[in-house]
Design a protein that fits this description.
Blueprint (H helix, E strand, L loop, with lengths): L2 E7 L4 H15 L3 E6 L16 E5 L12 H7 L8 E8 L8 H12 L3 E2 L4 E4 L4 H18 L2
Helix pairs in contact: 1-4
The structure holds flavin mononucleotide (FMN).
Length: about 150
């Protein structure tokens, strides 16, 4: 693998922190990371195809809903064929809510429907990633790299 794209939505920084832990781990393995914050960094749907694997991270809003800023990219993904592209999903969630990480599940369902190859179990971190969560994030990143190149 030469490059991995991380696309994430974060309002209060928790998912961003997870994205940064994952990015840092992947870069240490000698793989280039292109990281985009949804709604802030310009990201065109075609950029999903100029990379060897894609990680999408998101927080959850409302009642298990997508963040508002992630709706456009969600709609754009509905229009493309992701056949064979390795994907992984992650994000920060809050167990006070009924639909724990509902937006992550929505993205997982969507990319599978579009033919993506989801190669790792979804990573859901409770709120801010604490010290003990760092290893979990790194294990997720490592599994993504290994399973994407199989
Ligand atoms: C109005 C509102 C609704 C939320 N709804 C959910 C939800 O349905 N499920 C969930 O797991 N978390 C929910 N959350 C919690 C956020 O996903 C959580 O705070 C997360 O850590 C935010 O991530 P961020 O710092 O990357 O923005 C909600 C938060 C807010 C403010």
């Amino acid at each position: 693998m030469k490059s991995i794209t991380i696309l994430y939505a974060s309002m209060t920084g928790n998912t961003e922190e997870i994205a940064e832990i994952i990015e840092s781990y992947i870069e240490k393995q000698g793989i280039e990371v292109k990281r985009y914050q949804i709604g802030f960094d310009g990201f065109e749907i075609d950029q999903l195809f100029d990379t060897d694997g894609v990680l999408i991270g998101t927080y959850t809003d409302g009642d298990g809903d997508l963040p508002f800023e992630a709706e456009d990219i969600y709609d754009a993904i509905e229009q493309v064929d992701l056949k064979g592209i390795p994907f992984g999903l992650f994000g920060s969630c809050d167990s006070m809510y009924t639909f724990y990480g509902g937006a992550i599940d929505s993205f997982e369902t969507l990319v599978k429907e579009r033919g993506a190859n989801v190669v790792v179990p979804t990573l859901k971190i409770e709120l801010y990633p604490e010290i003990e969560d760092i290893k979990t994030c790194e294990t997720f990143a490592q599994a993504f790299i290994e399973n994407s190149t199989k």
